[in-house]
Amino acid sequence: MDEQELRATLRTSLERHAAEADVTAPVADRARGEVRRRRRTRWSVVGAAAAVALAVGGAAVATGGDDPAQGPSTVDEGSADVTPTSTDEWRTEYWGGVAVDVPADWGYGGAPFDDGTACYPEAMIGPDGRRLRTSGDRGWVGRPIGATDVCALVPNAWEPSAPYAWLGAGVEPGTYEYDNGYVQETIEVEGVTVTVGTTDAGLRSRILATARGGEPTRCQHTYPGVPEATTGFFDSGDDGPPYAWVCAYRVVESPNIVEDGTFRLSYAAKVAPEAAADALAAQDAAPVQQVDCDYQPHEFVVLATGVPGDTYTRTVYETGCAGGTVHLVGGAKEMVAAGVKPWAHNGIPAVVYGPTGGRGAMIDSFIGPQG
Amino acid sequence: MTDRATAAEPGFDAWVEARVPALLRFGYLVTGSQQAAEDAVQSALVSACEKWSRISRRDDPDAYVRRMVVNAHISAWRRSGRRESPVALVRDATVTDPAQRVVENDAVWRMCSALPPQQRAAVVLRFYEDLEYAEIATILDVAEPTVRSHVHRALAALRRELDSVDGVDSADSAEES
Lengths: 371, 177
Fold this sequence. Notes:
A: 2 domains, 6-stranded mixed beta sheet, B: mainly alpha, Arc Repressor Mutant, subunit A, membrane (chain A), transmembrane helix (chain A)
């Protein structure tokens, strides 16, 4: 059978199989019903989004992150006019190109996907990245990532018991009042939903007012695919202290994002440059990765390090490939616990799926098989 | 609370009625089952309806919705944590044209079932929807060489399937003679 015959066989066979489909299935009616149900039961829309967006003001300039073509941007932590005054009590969380400031003692949990399911809608991980025995009344930052298989349908079959901020959750802009007094308000900033739920109206307004786009970090906002490890020299002559950022990316599936399939920033945080150096040294000494993964990557982590005015390096951790593969400039290495632990804390164990590392060496570093 | 339940967006109903049969056939080929096809198409239509004012302004809403069908399937596939198993081999010892057709159909389905979702979608878009590589790349949001690689690998896999069946048939014939 030559190439043409092979292609013809494939075409003909696909047509035959396509004819097996039942095209009378009422999927259009079901879809309309689902849209009506979503709109009816969930949210009442108010004009808060525009008001809060106006209140933000002082938006920073978008950056090229660690893209060597543009060169890393300057970190400017004080650029947002509305940043809470005490940096000891607040921290910044990132999702896509949006940054939000939250109380520093809040932990990490889940936020609703587009179907309203949230796994897990309470603080599951502490602010330092340790798993919590009990959530208590600790506030939390939630992302639409399945951190566990313990889920709730929000808001229909769930009531909050602690304040929260959701980034990129599948909720419509507007407000929702729970019977227990919690008020949830959602705004949209640069296409990303930011939701805050609390009984404290002042706290809610304060957090929402910090939601902003274009926050300068060392993390690029998106990648079209898993990037290559790279190193280079800064174009500009700016100098400054060494830096290290951990930047997590994942493919976000949401009707709110038309250009689906792109890897978007799901988490970003500064790391002590010394700790990052330790991680990179450990990875450099790790065994060469022998497995060439043939799979559809869903997420990865970039460790962006450098010295402004001198050199920068992008190291890529592919957590879903063969027990973890780390792409260094010199080649791919097996991911090892000592190459992960220096940066896999704070929100990472609630945001990134990863291997257990054999004998549990990395079990606290990532979302595991059972959350 | 304000009740925002309304009819579907203007223009959506007419478009969806015209396109559902084709989308279900496409979904069936991409997912490999009626149930999964209905789920993927329904999910895509919900997304399309909610964003119809934006999608309908695009040159080709079909491409967007096909993409959503593929993405819905990939998402479900990931959540389930399972991969489709190749279907059981169905062969007829008698080598007649209908039997050969069954063998070929089976080989194609088995090959498709073994492909990752995106690769399978590339094959369906190329050989069922007859799209150009560039169009497929746009729908799948991958580079054109990636699409070519997907298709090339699929054809190679199909050739192996067919060669394997031929080999088994030849061996059976030799045993019987």
